[in-house]
Write a structure and sequence with these properties.
The protein contains 2 helices and 6 strands, in the order βββαβαββ. By secondary structure, the protein is of the alpha+beta class. The model has no long low-confidence stretch (mean pLDDT 79).
Length: 125
Amino acid sequence: MSPVRRCSRTACGRPAVATLTYVYADSTAVLGPLATYAEPHCYDLCAEHSERLTAPRGWEVVRLSDGSAPAHPSRDDLEALANAVREAARPPDRGTDAGGRGPRAADSVEVARRGHLRVLRSPDS
């Protein structure tokens, strides 16, 4: 027996990623994350079939998201990552202000370092 559960749709052999359950009393189809184990009255669906799921006329489809699944990175996440890469690639600052008078007073104080990561403390603490 294969450890990967397959889509319940006929002739589909793709791995299942979601579980469909019908609540007949409420005329609702509930599509959620893949159940821990196969239930006899539930249907396991692959990604393609779960996205294309429709319900009969008069029924409602409720799609539950899996909170543990990684979300797609937002634009802000990608910009923060790009800024961090740019900062890491920038030549080291010599710690002088524009006039070359020595260390800048507004800079944070480096407390510890591990690889490319630094622990900083603000100068007023």
